[in-house]
Queue: 2 jobs
Job 1
Amino acid sequence: MKKNILRGIVPIMTLLFFLTFILSCTTSREDDYDYFKNLAEWGGARLDKPAEIRARVAEELKKYKETGDKKFLISSKYTEAFVDLKKTGNASDELGLFQLPIVYDLLKLSNGQYSFVTASCNFNLAVKFEKNSPKLAMQFLDKAIAAEVRSGGRYFLPHLYHFKGRLYYNAEDYKNAMVYFDKALKTHDPKKDQLYIASMHNNFAMCYDKMNQRQKAVQEVDIVVKILENIPRPKLEVIYFLAQVKVDKAYYHYKLKEYAEAENILLEQLRFYRKHPELQYETIVCLRYLFNIYKDNNQLDKIQGVLSVINTIEPGLKDIANQIEVDEIIQSYYAYVGNDTKVKELSFKLMGLHEKQDEESETKFTRVSNALNDYIIKNINQRYAHKLEDQKLRNQFMFIVILLLVIIFCFVFVTIRNKYRKDKELAGKEKIILQKTKTILENNIKLQEDKISSLHLNLNLKIETEKEFLEHIKKVKRSKNADAEQTISDLFFKINNLIQIDRKNYDLINESSLENKQFVDKLSARFPMLTQQDLKYCVYFKLELSSKEISLLENITEGSARVYKTKIKTKMDIGKDTDLNAFLKTI
């Protein structure tokens, strides 16, 4: 019964386990990582071609409509994020805030199933909130790192470590910054990522500078210069980066009071920047470092040379931060030469520029704050929606579990009831069979009792007849004048009676002979070393005939009969203390 129930329950429990597994596991779509990676590289190479990007957006949407695969809906949104509205003239969004709704939708659609999308979107948000909310930026960054590590860290991980190091650097936690810069260095490919590897060494130099270990900073910069100068056919970004690193090296020499080395480097880089007027900020930094060197060494003529360059570039400055930098250098000059009037005049000018800069910063901050608040509200709504969704899924799961349990209960109940009915029917049939068997056995017993009774009567009659036969012989022997013919006739009559009695007992005697034959066959099979003579004596022993009776039957002495018994026990190896008669009855 238990086996039958188990056979029915196992398939149902297997189905229940399968449904539990499906409903409780989050579907992973790591196989699509490369698809989104290739899409990101394609979009990054076409930032100046918005028409191509929009065409790709339409193409991805078409795939979604044809297949219904959510991956293509997400890829269309992801491609849309590469559209640079600032270049198309549709809007001015230097902070990239227009991307926030797209990024939010991507995270919602992906729901953690696409690691590349999760890492990319959280990285994007971390960059956007780096200055206005570093703590939130770190949270986004940690989510991006977790998603990238889960996918094997195949694309973003070095850049994510780099950015986390930068966040620590901005927070003045230089030791942790160096830890993550080192992680980024170790995850970059040394053959392909020379520029990024050089960048990490430059970050080490910046950290050493902040920790007042400028000799180490110079050593790291030398590594950067060596890497960059050995890059064959360098792109413009490599050339610009090399110039910036050399300016930083000059600054470290300046801090070490190695003025001559610092001046030579700065003059070389100033000539380079003068050929690239688009690098206004870098030019101003170079001029400030030269101004500080000349001021510390009281080289007024060289300071005036710096001011003449500043006067040349100042009219073309549009960025407020650059204007402030230039005016502060000029103000420092007038303070150095003691021209208080010019110092005050520049102070008022700088106040106006700072107010204007603060207004712009406040505007940007307000926009970022609004965007951040909007994101937080949407994120709360999303979490609430996810909770409702999860609760709905749990309710559906519970309903399925309860339904399956009811089905299992009904199945077990029906199985047990049917089994009970079958057992009851079988018990009834067995009762009838037992009753019939009992009747047959009773009839057989009665028949055997009748046969035994008849046998006893016949045996008694035979015994009485044999007694009369013997008495008659004795009488004939005593009487010498007996009539011989009459005597023979009487003896013939008595023998005929004995024969008739034996015929009546034939069936019973035959049954006994069959039993003896079966006994002899079993004994011979078990003890093949016994001879036919031995087997015959075993029959006598089983019938518990005495040695005297056996001697009369076999015409041997009583001692010979006992010797036969001992020999048979030895052949059978049953031990001297074993009763042979009792042992033979067990066979």
Note: The longest helix spans residues 340-478.
Job 2
Amino acid sequence: MFLFTSVAIGRPAGDTTFRSGSGIKEVWLHDTKATELAHLGMLWGFLKYHHPDATSGAVDMDAELFRVMPQVIAAANMDSSYAIMERWVDRMGVPAACRKCVTNTNEAKTFTGPDYASLFITTVPQSLRSKLDSIKKNRESSKNRQYVKMATEGNPEFLNERPYDATPYPDAGMRLLALYRYWNIVQYYAPNRHATRNRGRMLADMVQEFANAGDTLAYQLACLRLFTRINDGHGRLDARSKALETHKGIYITPFKARFVEDQLVVTGYYKDTLNITGIIKPGDVIEMIDGMGMIDLIRKYLDIVPASNHQAKLAAMAGADGFLLRGAGASAKLSISRNGERRDITVPRIRVAEWMRKADAWHTNEQGYRMLAGNIGYIYPAGLAGSDLKNIQASFENAKGIIVDMRCYPAVSMMAGYTAWLKPEASAFAKQTTMNIDIPGLFEFGDPILTGGEKGKHYTGKLMILVDETTHSSAEYQSLALRSMNGAQVIGSRTAGANGATAEIVLPGGIRTWLSGVGIFYPDGTATQVEGLRIDKEVRPTIKGIAAGKDEVLDEAVRMLSE
């Protein structure tokens, strides 16, 4: 049985007791133990972000967790667990009455208030709830926070979070710390936490998977499942560990594919190698990979592909960092359909390379601007250089219309110079929600964000913005700004719904991930996270068009501008 020992509270800089591990090698979960450990995680996060000894850095909250966790694990029942937690709160000490209490004084700007999950429900003993309520009410304003501060653009910055990266497979206590750390960051500092699937059950649901993860791969897959549940396209896992890469497969087909008309369709090639262009063609529909049908493959990977919406998930699955086209062997057996004819083929695979990931994520294979037939200017932001604006202004001065193709990730920001050139009059294009540093969990709307209205020469012709599921994050934000130009239109299909600047999170095992740190909305309050941008005219590629080498979205924009 684990025994509680009163250990002196140490400062983060000096308490090295648990730097190499929690000492908790395994956790036996039975009866209500997952719920008890979930409540421990909620309590730990509440104290971390509310108790003055934690927010000031007087205690190391990781070390505190590892001192109390063994007792909760060993507790015979839930009542015993709550008693242990309450003694822990007593040892932390209930703060004195605040001198400058923090309250929400601007409810008109409130988007969403704090959420304490199950900490204040009636099954928690009244004595413990009263102590937690006192801690909450007596939290004083302070600019110095040990674990979080407000960075640029209102983003949270998470401080002094140790990566515990000596091994990619941390012990059971460290794995539960990873779950607790992430869940509480989402609970108090994710502006889009309302998009999380079953957030109330998220912690208890994942305790068993984190506690029982048997190796590095199982732990990293548990992290991916956790990240996926918040429906945030910034929630990728950046570990590049041998375990996860091997699980995906170190080989990939030399061709590219995307989901079109609800089917996985070949669209082009990463590399013309091993006669791949003679084996498989753009427009071919992939129905099976190595004996598994596409519906089963999607179901297999759906809960380990972080994204904001289903279309973005499918795009990520088919990419160079996805699962569908990768494998352990140097070839893949495919069942394809070409012009309605079913055939079985074997295609070679090549080793995944960093240039593939970059090309897949950033779409940099095209020049930044050119003139199309019919005197229509075309801008491809992934290919732009910082010095291109003056040449674009001169070249497109008399263009009949301009197309900005945001089906990519911009290499430069179009927020200043381009919007100043395209918008003679200033107007609001968005507003955002940011955290309140003094009240964890409170998010408030800021003032409308304006663009345009600067002096100088302006382009006053028509503007078309092309988007689809690859229009992600900065591309969505810049599209939002460009759309506010008078008469501009957004053409294409649903975007990734991952708008806003990002905040980095570090977890045990050296894992890094991100979340959207601010909420981005239209001026009327309509959300862009998950939902994506408003589409003025929906145009989607077709299998027939891809087979013919057409870009149907671009063609439609050209047609509309030529009318």
Note: Residues 407 and 471 are 5 Å apart (CA to CA).
